[in-house]
Every structure is written in C-alpha cells, then in structure tokens.
Amino acid sequence: QVQLVESGGGSVQPGESLRLSCAASRIIFSIVDMAWYRQAPGNQRELVAHISQNGITNYADSVKGRFTISRDNVKRTVYLQMNNLKPEDAAVYYCNCPVTNSWGQGTQVTVSS
Fold it and tell me: Are 34 and 41 in contact (CB under 8 A)?
C-alpha cells in the first residue's frame, strides 16, 4: 500500500519557521492530490493545505499567507513551508493522500516561547 513518511517537525519559538516534508512511495505520485492535516490535543484533525496533481493549492483560513504547500514529483515529496508560526499552530502534522486515504505517522510541531 501507499507509504507516506513525514519529517521536519520540531520545537520553535513564535515567529520562526519550519519546513515539513512527506516522502511517498508505492504510488504514481504525479497523478494524485496531496494534503497536510494537523491535530492538536483535544481537537479534531483539520485540513491545513491541499495541492492538486496540477499544483493548484488551497489553504485553511488560519494559515493563509503564512504556510505554503508544494510538491516535487521527481522526488515524490510534498512540502509544507510554515512561516511566522504561532502557538496555535502547535499540533501533530499528518501527510495525506486523499485518493487512497493514506496517512503518514505524523510529525510533532511545537511553538512556544
């Protein structure tokens, strides 16, 4: 089945940046949409950003202008560049392939001073 492996999480201070990566395997990556979700303790998992196979992007209102989703079809990787991080961005971030409903294991992002 599809395998998704996230990396790049960590602990930062408010205003700093992180870039998450998600490497995909066992899938024809270039023809599928990809997405990033996040889940904070006590909250439901929420969609953060989505990128179509053609590179069209959509974002949650809470991250517009700060986060950028991108993809490299040669490397079979989707990225989430997160700038100007806020404490409310702290969560476990998950990579998702909607068409197969596949999920990565998640990567923790902590934002605190």
Answer: no
Token pair in block for residue 65 = 């202008």
Which DSSP letter does residue 66 get?
A: T
Alpha-carbon distance 60 to 4, whole Å? Answer: 22
pLDDT digits 0-9 by tens, 19-56: 999 999 988 888 899 999 999 999 999 999 999 999 99
Give helix then strand counts, H and E, for the chain.
0, 11
pLDDT band per the 50, 70, 90 thresholds, residue 15: very high
Three-state secondary structure call for residue 23? strand
Closest CA to 21 of 111, 112, 107: 107
d(CA 89, CA 62): 9
